User: What shape does this take?
Amino acid sequence: MAGVGIGLALTGILLAGTALAADAARKPAAPAATPAPAIPTTEPLYNPTGGPDQRNPFRTDIAQCSQWYGGPAGTLTPAGAQPPAVPMPGIHGMVASGGSSACGRWEALGQASIFKDGAFLRAMHYREKASSYTAPGGANVPYGHERSVYSGGFGFARPDGSFLALDATRAEKHDIRYAGAPLDTRYFDATTLMLRSRLAVDMGQVRALRFNASWTDFDRENDNFSYRPLVGAATRARFHRQVTTLDAAADGRSGALDWSLGFAFRQDHRDATRYQGPALAAQSPVVADGTVSIYGLVADGKYALSAGNRVIVQAKLDIVSATLDGMDRAGLVTPGFGATPTPRALFAATYGYGGSGAEIELNLGATLRYEQDFDAVRGRWFAGLKRVVRTADPRERYFVSFTPPSGGALNPGPIHRTWIGNPGLEPEQHHIAELGFGWSGGGWEIAGRAYGDRVTDFILWDRARGQSGVTRADLVNVFRNVDALIAGLEGKLRYRLAHGFWLGADGWLTYGENLTDRSAIAQIPAAEAHLRAGWAQGQFDIEARWRLVATQDRVDSFFRTGSGTDGTGLAGAPARAPGFATLDAALGWKPLPNLKVTLGVENIFDRRYREHIERTDIDDPFTFNPTAPGRSVYARAVGRF
Assistant: This one.
């Protein structure tokens, strides 16, 4: 039935799309609505429900050379950026370029769109290049990449909010070098096709039908010899991944209740192999054709109790199907060791797992949130409870990068670099309570949020020490379930003085505890605060930021007693990186209404520091972070038409 409904929704929207341009020409434009006053909100640094790739999201406000994306104000195409579903009417575009002395980064962007008579076209091209740099103290930091993004799309839209948009994007990132990792990336390419649509209808309580779909194909290759002297055996790893998403929903209103009912589908398929030796023969199936599919039913509602308060509810039922088609895929003979074990053999030897790799889950999530406006809608406070269930991804379930022990089959030696996923993992069950507010008035902007998350079956990257559910004790990398507590505080403050001056402050405090082992959870952000000051008048604006980051003393930094994720893995250092303070400043100039030039300096006092959180986007048994660049100057110009 769900497939029939999806097909009908898609067919109706696609057929309606051909009539949107003509309808838009006949219908008068809707009057512009008066925008509601903006209520300040906080920006989280940590997302406990995001899984290993999104718990610490990419930040656009820290040194670009310390992570995949970044920079003083982000790149021109920051991580996750998407064009709006419908562009602005008329002909619009942007041409921009910038550069930074930090890792010699240079970037350029050109984009344009035309929207006329109910139809639109758009295109975008982005280029970026970065290279190695010298950190404070004189150490050379291997770093660098070349990135190109090409995007184009077209669609139809009409004044009642109906639209159909089709976009295609090709992103290519090549010659990627990492400081501290044993491998680099030769290429990492992604091709994305995206459809977004909405059809306004008049069917009683049903107001609109929505259908969105996307497909992304990732190709990646890592090796240890293209950009560095070879150490040990020549190694190459090839990764292929396809992510498919689809959602269909009906939006409606019943009295004071705005509601939505829909179906959501997500599939993550991965297949990867490691090649090793002089002939680069297949040595280990890294992910042997693993797939996790999620079929979800979603119901959302917003009920207005009165003009200034409301209740928001959501219920989500997910059916998860996980399979590993290469359960018995064997690697070739490893010199001095023998045949590489199959995934089935590794799962059995590590967890006592005797299944086929296929698992089925039924996961239920729900949200209940109350919001109350105050001070003529200049402020709002909220309180909420939610249960979020996250299933294990293919890496956590099926990753089996096998490396023979450094001391031989019976002697694991001081370090074991093997990874063994766990197909028997239970899904993470997050039970979150949050309370917050935002208010602006009289020159002030204030916002705050506090949350606590009691997690059942948190999926932990750990080392095998014979724990419950782990049948070996040779320190290989494993994944297991533990109970956890995660909590956080976020705050934001701004005050606008006379003559264009303003002051501000932001702060974050995050806590994570592994309740099962009574130890710290790895990769929890350190306490952080930003003190800001600025001035804006006419064509000019100035901003300075003093970033204060504390030492994170609660760490999981020793691989013999924990995962070692917060350390080098070679010693029990008390902290992964000490605290630091940096000062940045920027000057903006608008010589023309649609042209802005920005000049800035990062790390003015040339401090030597490292970030605690790793954002280098490569899997390794030990995390690492390079020393950040020292004092650097950047410039950027953005012109719009």
